[in-house]
Write a structure and sequence with these properties.
The chain is α+β, with helices and mostly antiparallel strands. The chain contains 3 helices and 5 strands. The chain has one domain. A 5-stranded antiparallel sheet has the order 4-3-2-1-5.
C-alpha cells in the first residue's frame, strides 16, 4: 500500500471491518456516527493497533490497522 498509515495520518474507520470484530464485541454495538463520518488522527501505533483521536469530546480509541483507511 503506497499510503501507509503512520503517526499523524488522518484515517477513516471501515465499517465492514469493524463489525463483528473483537473490538466491536467488547463495546456497545451501536457505534456513534462520528466514528464513520469523520476523520481520526493517528496518535500512536503499537504493533497492529493505532490510537485514534476524533475531534469530538470523546476519549481516544485503539483500533486495528486493518479497520482503518487513509482519509482523502
Amino acid at each position: 500500500m503506497a499510503n501507509t498509515i503512520k503517526k499523524g495520518s488522518l484515517v477513516r474507520v471501515i465499517p465492514d471491518n469493524l463489525a463483528g470484530s473483537l473490538e466491536a464485541q467488547a463495546s456497545d454495538s451501536r457505534f456513534p456516527s462520528y466514528l464513520f463520518e469523520s476523520k481520526g488522527e493517528v496518535l500512536d501505533i503499537q504493533q497492529d493497533y493505532a490510537l485514534l483521536r476524533f475531534y469530538v469530546p470523546t476519549p481516544n480509541v485503539w483500533l486495528r490497522l486493518d479497520q482503518l483507511e487513509m482519509a482523502e
